[in-house]
Automatic annotation (TrEMBL):
<keyword id="KW-0812">Transmembrane</keyword>
<feature type="transmembrane region" description="Helical">
    <location>
        <begin position="6"/>
        <end position="29"/>
    </location>
</feature>
<feature type="transmembrane region" description="Helical">
    <location>
        <begin position="41"/>
        <end position="60"/>
    </location>
</feature>
<feature type="transmembrane region" description="Helical">
    <location>
        <begin position="253"/>
        <end position="272"/>
    </location>
</feature>
<feature type="transmembrane region" description="Helical">
    <location>
        <begin position="80"/>
        <end position="98"/>
    </location>
</feature>
<feature type="transmembrane region" description="Helical">
    <location>
        <begin position="150"/>
        <end position="175"/>
    </location>
</feature>
<feature type="transmembrane region" description="Helical">
    <location>
        <begin position="413"/>
        <end position="430"/>
    </location>
</feature>
<keyword id="KW-0813">Transport</keyword>
<dbReference type="InterPro" id="IPR001204">
    <property type="entry name" value="Phos_transporter"/>
</dbReference>
<protein>
    <recommendedName>
        <fullName>Phosphate transporter</fullName>
    </recommendedName>
</protein>
<dbReference type="Pfam" id="PF01384">
    <property type="entry name" value="PHO4"/>
</dbReference>
<feature type="transmembrane region" description="Helical">
    <location>
        <begin position="187"/>
        <end position="208"/>
    </location>
</feature>
<keyword id="KW-0592">Phosphate transport</keyword>
<feature type="transmembrane region" description="Helical">
    <location>
        <begin position="228"/>
        <end position="246"/>
    </location>
</feature>
<keyword id="KW-0472">Membrane</keyword>
<keyword id="KW-1133">Transmembrane helix</keyword>
<feature type="transmembrane region" description="Helical">
    <location>
        <begin position="110"/>
        <end position="130"/>
    </location>
</feature>
């Protein structure tokens, strides 16, 4: 039984390596987002700078390790065996929780996860001890938990969210007021000073304040303390001179240096602050095991040894830093987390990842009203000057093009890095493990708000996204607390059986999530997905949109056939799957309609016929998808409600229509795939034949209803299907006629120039 603790220590060590990989995948993007979003530096340069910051920061992180040892619970109140169970439960729960959020692509906090895991496991273990004691009651829980320290840590984490958002918004608002969006000229005049201030702030707080949390500070203490003012002034002179020389030598803005140094500094601060989240518990477990062996291997010995300050082993920090750097380079999940923050902070409109909800709508409406009330207090002349500073340069891009463009400019990237780095370094110097995720995310959201990136077009979506992420943070805290408590309870019940089961379960879940994420990340644009057009003439739009029409009729044909087959076989799963397919098609058509504004803006005055043609075909596509949506929806509803199945004669008639439609749609698909638009005429000539077929079925159903039909639900369904099929045919034929009448093979298609003017 004694050997189980050695096996547990080995398992915890392996879990620590996995935890670093999982944790860095979530947190790495915190210090990369500003540089990536601004596209000021190449991706390779960004990664090299960040890697150096992480590696150096790992060496400086030993002072933070005390949090995992004694920051949440009182070690002296626990026996060795109980401490090891707590640490095992924390590591298992932490890995699964972080990997779950990584797979979703949502940034969560490794700090909150580890703090609440420790708290949950320690509370449950304390309750187990209290329940086994004859003298203790629930009131004695306070002597097991370091309540004051735990509350300080938790309140510091929550407070950092408010402070980060507020400070980020304020600094960005002032910066934008000074430099405006057309900052190139002002940067030439004031950029050197701005660079000096930004770099001074980054270096002072990160390299000096951040050093307070490390054992190396003792050697510098006599030099630093009392000379802060001189150090700040000296740094400002040095960095201002550096910015001047940098601009003269490279002929590029000093903001590049700010972003590079800021990325390095934020990576260093992240590593110094967050490494405790990954290896603090394993190191505490190692020191516990070491003390247990030296103490005679008594399982019931008190773990008061953890109250003492123990220096971290440099080689362990070195290994941890190396693993973090490797993860940074090779983790694909980090990119998924990046997309969320960048989409919410992007200056231009883009594809909205989150749907608006009641709360986001209420916040946006309330903020708009509040803004209008305060607007009355500010003189109009002053409002005009402020608005001029926030006037964005006109740039018309499609939503797909906006994703490839920089998410924001270098001014905002510099502020993001400067403010986040300063706040994290201050907390690190006070040994408060605030959440780097919360700070960097909320700073980015604050600067986005101040930059007016959340306009009337996108505010409800962006606010909903922020609320989703913040909700996930609370979910992290609650989930970590409950899950760690449950796991430690199960392990305590039978360690030798439960621990292997939990380790196997952890390995299985990690592998499953890895495979699932790999499939989704490798998935390129689907073969049948709809694509935006970039032509400026009718003939160009005809050629570019031909593939879209081919795909719609191909998918529409399949949706209609599945609806008929689902009704015939009463196959609910097929009909349910069919509804998802038509919903997907409908969203893609809606996305094309959303691009109309950008399409028309890009046209010149001689290309107005192209816009009219494009709008018409999108209207017909929407009519087609609406008919398919109705057919799919009512079919699913009928079977789902367990109504009477359609009669054999009705199914037979629907099959006849389906066969006729299949022929029509297949011919249409071939014509558009091969760009043989002359063939459309022969397809249109069959319009009356197919419509007459549907009309004939309607007449037959009327006769059946008068003489033999006994089910109102069946009658309603069948008439609905036939009438909607007529609408589907009408929309399809209108679409074909639009193409047939507009196509001219003798005209060379014109396209919009993508060259920079």
């Amino acid at each position: 039984m004694d050997n189980i603790y050695l096996l547990m220590l080995i398992a915890i060590t392996v879990l620590a390596i996995v935890d670093i990989v999982v944790g860095v995948s979530n947190d790495a993007i915190n210090f990369l987002n500003s540089a990536i979003g601004s596209k000021a530096l190449s991706m390779r340069t960004i990664m090299i700078i960040a890697s150096l910051g992480i590696f150096i920061g790992a060496v400086f992180s030993s002072g933070m390790m005390e949090v995992a040892r004694k920051g949440i619970f009182v070690p002296a109140q626990f026996e060795f065996g109980e401490i090891m169970l707590i640490f095992m439960a924390v590591m298992i729960t932490d890995i699964l929780l972080l990997d779950f959020f990584n797979t979703l692509g949502l940034p969560t906090s490794t700090t909150v996860s580890i703090v609440f895991n420790l708290l949950g496991a320690a509370v449950v273990m304390s309750l187990i001890k209290i329940s086994q004691s004859e003298t203790e009651s629930l009131a004695d829980l306070g002597k097991y938990i370091a309540t004051d320290t735990a509350l300080t840590i938790i309140s510091g984490i929550l407070l950092s969210v408010i402070i980060a958002f507020t400070v980020g918004a304020l600094v960005q608002w002032i910066s934008r007021l000074i430099f405006t969006f057309n900052y190139e000229q002002k940067i030439k005049n004031f950029g050197i000073v701005f660079g000096g201030v930004a770099l001074t702030a980054i270096t002072y707080f990160i390299f000096l304040k951040g050093l307070k949390g490390t054992p190396y500070y003792k050697e510098m203490k006599s030099v630093v303390e009392g000379n802060e003012v001189y150090i700040i002034l000296g740094s400002f002179v040095f960095w201002t001179l550096f910015s001047f020389i940098f601009e003269k030598l490279t002929k590029r803005t000093s903001l590049l240096a700010v972003i590079a140094v800021g990325t390095f500094g934020l990576a260093l601060a992240f590593s110094g602050n967050d490494l405790v989240n990954f290896i603090g518990v394993p190191m505490a477990a190692y020191h516990s095991y070491e003390a247990w062996v030296l103490g005679g291997m008594d399982v019931s010995m008190s773990m008061s040894v953890l109250d003492k300050k123990v220096p971290a082993e440099p080689y362990l920090l070195f290994i941890a830093g190396a693993i973090m750097v490797l993860t940074l380079w090779f983790s694909k999940k980090a990119k998924s987390v990046a997309e969320t923050e960048l989409s919410l902070s992007r200056q231009s409109d883009t594809h909205d990842k989150f749907e608006p909800n009641r709360l986001s709508r209420a916040i946006v409406k309330g903020s708009s009203q509040l803004s209008s009330y305060f607007g009355v207090l500010v003189p109009k002349s002053l409002q005009g000057k402020i608005n001029n500073s926030f006037e964005k340069p006109q740039s018309i891009m499609t939503k797909d093009q906006s994703i490839d463009a920089p998410a924001f400019d270098m001014i905002r990237a510099s502020v993001n890095l400067m403010v986040a780095g300063v706040l994290i370094a201050i907390a690190t110097s006070f040994k408060l493990p605030l959440s780097t995720t919360y700070v960097t995310f909320m700073v980015a959201m604050g600067t986005s708000l101040a930059d007016r990136a959340w306009g009337r077009e996108s505010a409800v979506y962006r606010v909903a996204g922020v609320l989703n992420v913040i909700g996930g943070w609370f979910g992290t805290a609650l989930g970590a607390f409950i899950a760690a408590g449950i796991v430690v309870f199960l392990i305590n019940w039978n360690p030798s059986v439960i621990i292997p089961i939990l380790l196997l379960l952890t390995a299985f879940l990690l592998y499953r999530n890895y495979v699932s994420h790999k499939k989704s990340s490798n998935k390129t644009a689907e073969e049948d997905s709809l694509k935006e057009t970039g032509s400026s003439s009718v003939q160009g739009v005809i050629l570019e949109s031909a593939d879209n029409i081919s795909n719609v009729v191909k998918r529409g044909n399949k949706i209609y056939t599945n609806a008929v087959n689902g009704l015939a076989k009463q196959d609910l799963s097929l009909l349910k799957k069919n509804r998802k397919q038509v919903d997907k098609l409908s969203k893609e058509v809606d996305s094309l309609r959303d691009n109309i504004f950008y399409f028309i803006k890009n046209l010149d005055e001689t290309s107005l016929r192209a816009s009219s043609f494009y709008i018409n075909i999108l209207g017909y596509l929407e009519d087609m998808t609406q008919s398919l949506e109705y057919i799919s929806k009512v079919s699913h509803k009928h079977i789902n409600n367990n109504h009477k199945k359609l009669k054999f004669s009705q199914i037979k008639e629907l099959k006849e229509i389906d066969v006729a439609l299949e022929t029509l749609f297949n011919d249409t698909k071939v014509a558009f795939e091969s760009h043989s638009f002359e063939q459309i005429g022969s397809i249109i000539s069959r319009k009356k034949e197919v419509l007459d077929l549907v009309t004939d079925k309607i007449v037959k159903q009327v006769a059946r209803t008068r003489t033999e039909e006994s089910s109102p639900k069946n009658t309603t369904l069948y008439f609905g299907l036939l009438l909607e099929t007529k609408d589907l045919l009408t929309a399809t034929m209108n679409l074909l006629e639009e193409y047939y009448n507009s196509h001219d093979s003798s005209v060379e298609p014109a396209t919009i120039s993508t060259d920079d003017e």
